[in-house]
């Protein structure tokens, strides 16, 4: 049998993907589950539903509750939080750079750092200077990375990855997909997804309650 694995689908503009990204690696290591980071773009998925922006902007009451909820979550986790402006931010460059990094050794660290930059420091992740600063802090030469992020190969990879998310039925982020195709949505479903990935069915979960 192969080792348990979980695909972690996220968009850098996603609010709840911020705490999920900071939590997933230590939790997965403890659970003995390997994680595959899968950046994608929510924009095409939202547009297919007739939305031109985040549902948290479309539905004011829902958005107000989300920001307060995220503030509480970050306080509980002792991680910094500042509401970014504007919201949502264009995550295209971040996703492309993440794909470059995930093919190397620094990709997951970059994902964490870019989320902290946006939701912890209120920086604009759609600005190349912000991405370059994050890369510099990781001791990664930004110039070749940014060049690679604009290559046809990376553009095509991100497009294929977004299309794959749509085929899986992913409608929001963060989402987690197990090897047997089970889909879990939301930061609060991370532990549940790891448990399913590790046990492969619902029996172990019921026994553990």
Explain the overall architecture:
The chain has a single domain (5-208), classed as 3-Layer(aba) Sandwich (Glutaredoxin). The chain has eleven helices and four strands, in the order E-H-E-H-H-H-H-H-H-H-H-E-E-H-H. It has helices at residues 17-31, 43-48, 55-58, 60-77, 92-102, 107-120, 128-137, 142-149, 152-167, 190-199, 203-208; strands at residues 5-10, 34-39, 175-178, 183-185. Strands 2-1-3-4 form a four-stranded mixed β-sheet, with helices on both faces. Strand 1 (5-10), helix 1 (17-31) and strand 2 (34-39) form a beta-alpha-beta unit. Helix 5 packs antiparallel against helix 6, helix 5 packs across helix 9 (152-167) and helix 6 packs across helix 7. The longest helix is centred in the N-terminal third of the chain and has 18 residues, at 60-77.
Task: Give a nutshell description of this structure.
With 209 residues, this protein is of the alpha+beta class. The chain has 11 helices and 4 strands.
Number of helices: 11
Tell me the number of structural domains: 1
Shape: globular
Average pLDDT score:
94
Percent helix among the residues? 55-70%
Query: Any low-confidence stretches, pLDDT <50, length ≥5?
Result: 202-209
Please, what is the CATH homologous superfamily? Glutaredoxin
User: Roughly what fraction of the amino acids lie in strands?
Assistant: 5-15%
Largest sheet: 4 strands, mixed
Distance between the termini: 26 Å
Rg from Cα: 17 Å
Based on DSSP secondary structure assignment, what is the total number of beta strands?
Answer: 4
Provide the CATH architecture. 3-Layer(aba) Sandwich
CATH class equals Alpha Beta
Helical/strand content category? alpha+beta
The succession of helices and strands, N to C, reads EHEHHHHHHHHEEHH
CATH topology: Glutaredoxin
